[in-house]
């Protein structure tokens, strides 16, 4: 099997902007392009194959017919394990939390959600919410939501381009306005909103909150994972920056200017080009790549090489069973 381009489902949420269209070439008739789901097999939106002999086929359908394209590292999952997004927050997202697998399976028939944010760009003064400043009790959290003092208790973090945040289930969080993010997450669409600034939805009514479920799953202590700028490692033809690794995904940024080999016998590889231009070359196949290109490389594909000057987010499935 050979690599192919993917077309992303687009989500039009009220806080979204226009940068995904203007800077990443995403096409949609929607006014706001809040999220593009660059690699998705979720029922709420699946990627469509955009090149090669299977062009026009949903990725879910292709993988159902060709499960070997996933690689052996996916065998421990009963569902496709990962979802890759681009997120343009023109305005603040709701303050929210995601459950773990056990809670999500019991209450939502979906996966829990572990996720990683890589900040692609941020306005001056931009910040996000990452957990609490101090430890609370459930009663104190419920009272803060009730009396509208929650934002006085959260941990507000100034952000800049290149920052990484690893967000485990139960961590209260929110992307702030003026932030552009690549999100690599567990394959889930379960979100419990706790606070939404009193905004109205398309129906003119306040958007739904999920306070009691959120209180059940929220970790009440400050966040356990460090955040900030990861270390960059020199390569012969560029740089490699490890971003996150857990049982669901391994993600790194690769900046290549002399060429980079991609692909594995044990896992599929997803490539999201975040800057520059290049070609994916192997055998008789050549795929042109530009900013915004999303590529699925099936497991066991012949050797392919990225040729050109570009920056990429590369996601694979590791052969591990516990989070690091």
Return Rg in Å: 20 Å
- The pLDDT mean sits at 93
Structural class category: mainly beta
The CATH architecture of the largest domain would be Sandwich
Instruction: Look at the structure and name the CATH superfamily of the largest domain.
Output: Jelly Rolls
**CATH topology term of the largest domain:** Jelly Rolls
Q: What's the total number of strands? A: 23
Largest sheet: 10 strands, antiparallel
Roughly how many Å apart are the termini? 32 Å
Strand content: 35-45%
Shape: globular
Per CATH, the class of the largest domain reads Mainly Beta
Instruction: Please identify the oligomeric state.
Output: single chain
* Poorly predicted ranges: none
What percent of the residues sit in helical stretches (DSSP H or I)? 10-25%
Give me the strand/helix succession: EEHEEEEHEEHEEHEEEEEHEEEEEEEE
Tally of discrete structural domains: 2
What is the helix tally? 5
